[in-house]
């Protein structure tokens, strides 16, 4: 989670919402990224999506079974779906997101019976630091 938090800090420094993600396979960080939606003018360039894309390219497969995702903020519906479709084994996230989250809040994507794959979910990992980054980022913009 420390690497994901570092990616979130780098995203904030670029003017992006400070969310960072790291995908770990076999105990090794395969991909790490922070949000790049503004930089790339791409609404799908969330940190989770970027690491899933990079890991899939790196490993040569769309299925990331046996891999674990660390992300600083509860994934949105788009990212939760991508995590399920990629068959990621475990999801660790920091801060919950009552407005945009889709794992423990909102649509609760993995609780839906149509969800074909449900990763193990562990929340609250690095929650304090992740929350502070987000609060400071938005406080500067108000």
Question: How would you describe what is shown here?
Answer:
- Helix content is 37%, strand content 21%.
- With 142 residues, it is an alpha/beta fold.
- A 5-stranded mixed β-sheet has the order 2-1-3-4-5.
- Helix 1 runs parallel beside helix 5.
- The mean pLDDT is 97.
* pLDDT < 50 runs, ≥5 residues: none
Largest sheet: 5 strands, mixed
- Overall SS class: alpha/beta
Strand percentage lies at 15-25%
**How many distinct beta strands?**
5
Radius of gyration: 14 Å
Strand order of the largest sheet: 2-1-3-4-5
Q: Helix share of residues?
A: 25-40%
Short recap of the structure:
The chain has 142 residues and is α/β, with parallel strands linked by helices.
Question: What labels would you give this structure?
Answer:
five-stranded mixed sheet; alpha/beta; 142 residues
Question: Secondary-structure blueprint of this entry?
Answer:
Elements: H1 2-13, E1 20-25, E2 28-34, H2 37-40, H3 47-59, E3 67-73, H4 77-85, E4 90-95, E5 120-123, H5 127-140
Parallel strand pairs: 3-4, 4-5
Antiparallel strand pairs: 1-2, 1-3
Helix pairs in contact: 1-5
């Amino acid at each position: 989670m420390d690497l994901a938090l570092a990616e979130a800090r780098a995203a904030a420094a670029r003017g992006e919402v400070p969310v960072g993600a790291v995908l770990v396979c076999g105990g090794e960080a395969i991909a790490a990224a922070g949000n790049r939606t503004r930089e790339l003018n791409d609404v799908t360039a969330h940190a989770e999506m970027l690491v899933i894309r990079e890991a899939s390219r790196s490993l040569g497969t769309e299925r990331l079974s046996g891999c674990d995702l660390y992300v600083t903020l509860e994934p949105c519906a788009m990212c939760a779906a991508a995590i399920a479709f990629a068959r990621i084994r475990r999801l660790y996230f920091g801060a919950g997101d009552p407005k945009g989250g889709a794992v423990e809040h909102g649509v609760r994507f993995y609780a839906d019976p149509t969800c074909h794959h449900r990763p193990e979910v562990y929340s609250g990992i690095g929650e304090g630091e992740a929350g502070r980054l987000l609060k400071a980022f938005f406080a500067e913009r108000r």
